[in-house]
Design goal:
CATH topology of the largest domain: FAD/NAD(P)-binding domain
CATH architecture of the largest domain: 3-Layer(bba) Sandwich
CATH class of the largest domain: Alpha Beta
Number of strands: 11
Strand content: 15-25%
Radius of gyration: 23 Å
Shape: globular
Number of helices: 13
Helix content: 25-40%
Distance between the termini: 25 Å
Structural class: alpha+beta
Strand order of the largest sheet: 6-7-8-5-9
Order of helices and strands: HHHHHEEEEHHEEEEHHHEHHEEH
Length: 344
């Protein structure tokens, strides 16, 4: 941190800009239009966030795990079990068990109780604080945060295709403007961002490619639609059709090459991961929380000892930030147990 103070001071010059406001400094009308949406179409994110991604990529600190999420998760699970850990699948936690102000285990939805010296929750923040622990442990700020659900979900709608085409001659990421906007889940969409996974040979058979388009969307739109399964499925089919028709303008013939289609809505994500919409607002922002985020420390509660909360929904930044949160939690437990923290 001390070594980088000069960089942080210089960074103040650009920290006042969003992608959209900085783009107005360009003379080129093309750059003024394209620059704000160069990263997932997020025109209003801070410029510094984009610079951080570019810098991390240039420094080889970012990458994509071959085989996608499942391969990455498997490597973590295999490492954990090789160290003697046990994983219970299909075992949702219903409640944190406590005794004399300490977390002493968990109770599963099927009624099974598991004792523990320490409990670490990497579950969705809302579920952890509003469902799994007694509300007397909540601070006024936590109550305030989780009473304000965020409806707009960035990258909340994923439209994926498996196509019988080799797209290795195309860029890994493509953003292109449409001549005429298309309606996607009630929104007018004038730009489509396509991820081309041709670089990963594990994600499709030889000569074929997996691609994906992502859209911002509203949780409430899909929540209401999911009450009627037929309408829900029809809307997904319409979105898939409109998306591939738009991509056809960029890659002729791709529509006829589609062999697999999958549309994942916010309801899909919630069903698979228990993660739903976020909570909180700009009024909840505090500098102290930002600094904690940089340090990747777990959240603790004064009234519930031996209980730690980690993960993206309480401040973990990306995979490495969440992993560091877990690592720092174990380091802290080792200190409490008067044991040396050892990592390979």
């Amino acid at each position: 941190w001390l070594r980088n103070i000069s960089v942080l001071i210089k960074n103040r010059k650009v920290s006042k800009y969003s992608m959209l406001s900085f783009a107005q400094r360009f003379k080129s009308p093309v750059l003024r239009e394209f620059f704000p949406v160069i990263q997932y179409g997020w025109a209003n994110i801070p410029l510094t966030l984009n610079l951080g991604v570019v810098a991390g990529s240039a420094g080889k600190r970012y990458g994509r795990y071959l085989g996608g999420s499942s391969e990455f998760i498997k490597s973590v699970a295999d490492r954990y079990t090789s160290l003697g850990g046990e994983i219970l699948y299909n075992s949702s936690v219903e409640r944190i068990i406590e005794d004399s102000g300490k977390a002493v285990g968990v109770r599963l939805e099927n009624g099974t109780e598991i004792s523990a010296n320490y409990v670490i929750s990497d579950a969705y923040g809302y579920d952890t604080f509003m469902k799994m622990i007694d509300e007397r442990h909540l601070t006024d700020r936590l109550r305030s945060m989780y009473s304000k659900p965020i409806d707009r979900m960035m990258m909340g709608l994923h439209v994926s295709f498996g196509v019988n085409m080799d797209l290795s001659d195309k860029p890994n990421a493509i953003s292109f403007f449409l001549d005429e906007p298309i309606e996607i889940a009630g929104d007018n969409c004038s730009i489509i961002n396509v991820l081309n996974y041709s670089y990963d040979k594990k994600l499709a058979p030889k000569g074929k490619t997996s691609i994906k388009a992502m859209y911002d969307t509203y949780y409430s739109y899909w929540e209401e639609l999911s009450k009627d399964q037929k309408k829900y499925e029809e809307e997904k089919a319409i979105i898939a059709s409109r998306t591939i028709e738009a991509i056809e303008r960029l890659i002729p013939g791709i529509g006829e090459a589609v062999e697999v289609t999958d549309v994942a809505t916010p309801i899909t994500t919630e069903r698979f991961t228990s993660n739903a919409r976020g909570y909180g607002s700009k009024e909840d922002f505090r500098l102290r929380d930002t600094l904690k985020g940089f340090l990747n420390k777990p959240m603790t509660l004064k009234s519930l000892k031996n209980f730690f909360v980690i993960g993206h929904s309480i401040g973990g930044t990306n995979l490495y930030g969440c992993a560091a949160m877990g690592r720092n939690t174990i380091r802290r437990i080792c200190k409490m147990e008067h044991r040396n923290f050892v990592a390979s």
